[in-house]
Inverse folding.
């Protein structure tokens, strides 16, 4: 290796690189995710969202689960809309002499809307306020769970990105 390249490599090797910014304040180590309130007709959607949010707060933000009374941060969530059956891609074929056209839906989408707030317990300060967060997920007809998961993944991405953007 030529001498200037070796010097640069040695110099860079001696430097300490790091990235900072984003995430939660340093004192936030634990989290409690309240039961999600559910304003929709789907009785299982609140638990589905709560479980996903809890897992993301722990795995993607590195927080430990704690009881509400012991947690550094609280997450409140209200599911305000869940519409699982929105046609997205369809074809129409003419019916036989005078009959109505036949419509075949091949792709649908799920719409999920939630209000999610992350609050620092000690100070009562709002760390992230995600009101009216809307997420959609497409799926092929008959596979609603795929669309539901895609919508949840997008909702969680917005939550994590929102928390990072505030710090």
């Amino acid at each position: 290796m030529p001498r200037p390249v070796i010097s640069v490599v040695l110099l860079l090797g001696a430097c300490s690189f790091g990235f900072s910014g984003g995430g939660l304040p340093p004192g936030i180590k634990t989290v409690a995710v309240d039961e999600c309130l559910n304003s929709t007709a789907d009785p299982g959607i609140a638990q589905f969202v709560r479980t996903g949010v809890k897992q993301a707060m722990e795995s993607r933000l590195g927080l430990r689960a704690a009881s509400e009374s012991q947690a550094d941060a609280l997450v409140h969530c209200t599911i305000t809309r869940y519409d699982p059956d929105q046609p997205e891609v369809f074809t129409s074929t003419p019916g036989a002499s005078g009959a109505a056209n036949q419509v075949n839906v091949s792709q649908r989408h799920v719409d999920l809307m939630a209000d999610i707030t992350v609050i620092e317990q000690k100070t009562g300060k709002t760390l992230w306020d995600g009101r009216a967060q809307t997420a959609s997920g497409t799926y092929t007809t008959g596979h609603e769970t795929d669309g539901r998961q895609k919508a949840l993944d997008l909702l969680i991405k917005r939550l994590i990105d929102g928390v990072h953007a505030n710090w």
